[in-house]
Design goal:
The complex is a heterodimer of chains A (64) and B (161). Helix content of chain A is 59%, strand content 0%. With 64 residues, chain A is mainly alpha-helical. The longest helix of chain A is centred in the N-terminal third of the chain and has 16 residues, at 3-18. The two termini of chain A are 26 Å apart. The chains are: A mainly alpha (64), B mainly alpha (161).
């Protein structure tokens, strides 16, 4: 792996722990276009104007 | 101890995150599970002296997890005499992300042409191969490689490397 590949892999590892909002938005934007991406539970709750009945096991998850 | 979560709560909250990080770097499931356990043993060993004002739990956990993966590969190399090709992380590249470095990289990523950024996100966040990215984006493999390399070049320039 090149230095840049290692750096990018580490950035997304870091993102798991630190959750930078800008990177989250960029990631969601990409996944919405190329992957079957389920919005986070918070987004669904906001959209529904209340508590979602989505089971916790897919909270913030991505459809595999 | 200056912390608002019990060890149980910390484990439940952060275990999936720690496992995601480790599993992306160590492909032996058993070793990944062991390492995840080691990370929490270390965290819980530090918890008595932990002060939330100095660093968040997630920041400390990131550092412990990162170091655990690096140590894992160092031990592997030492005992299994693995070549550089077998290791995900070269020994000389003990890269750990800090807020400042992440900030620079995120800003640089945001300035990339959208398609180049998409390729990097699909590869490094989603874990797709370049072949799959080419299929999903409707591009040739060579074009994806070329755009990825252009993205690397632009990022290096923006980061002053």
């Amino acid at each position: 792996m090149s230095d840049m590949e290692i750096l990018l892999a580490e950035l997304f590892g870091y993102q798991l722990f630190e959750q930078d909002q800008r990177l989250q938005l960029m990631t969601e934007d990409t996944l919405c276009r190329y992957d079957d991406y389920i919005l986070s539970l918070d987004d669904l709750e906001t959209a529904a104007g209340g508590v979602s009945d989505i089971p916790p096991d897919i909270e913030g998850g991505k459809k595999e | 101890m200056n912390i608002s979560f019990s060890p149980d709560q910390l484990y439940k909250k952060y275990r999936p995150i720690v496992m995601s990080y480790i599993s992306a770097r160590i492909h032996c499931e058993e070793d990944a599970e062991d390492l995840c356990g080691d990370v929490f043993v270390k965290l819980f060993g530090m918890i008595e002296s932990y002060d939330e004002k100095i660093a968040s739990i997630s920041t400390i956990l990131y550092k412990i997890t990162h170091d655990a993966v690096i140590d894992y590969y160092r031990r592997k190399r030492e005992y299994d005499e693995l070549s550089e090709d077998h290791a995900v992380l070269p020994s000389s590249e003990d890269i750990i992300m800090d807020r400042e470095r992440a900030d620079e990289l995120i800003k640089a990523l945001s300035k990339l042409p959208p398609q180049q950024r998409d390729i990097l996100i699909l590869r490094f966040y989603r874990g797709w191969t370049l072949v799959r990215i080419a299929e999903e984006m409707g591009l040739s493999y060579n074009k994806v490689v070329s755009r990825q390399n252009s993205a690397f070049k632009t990022l290096r320039r923006m980061l002053g490397e």
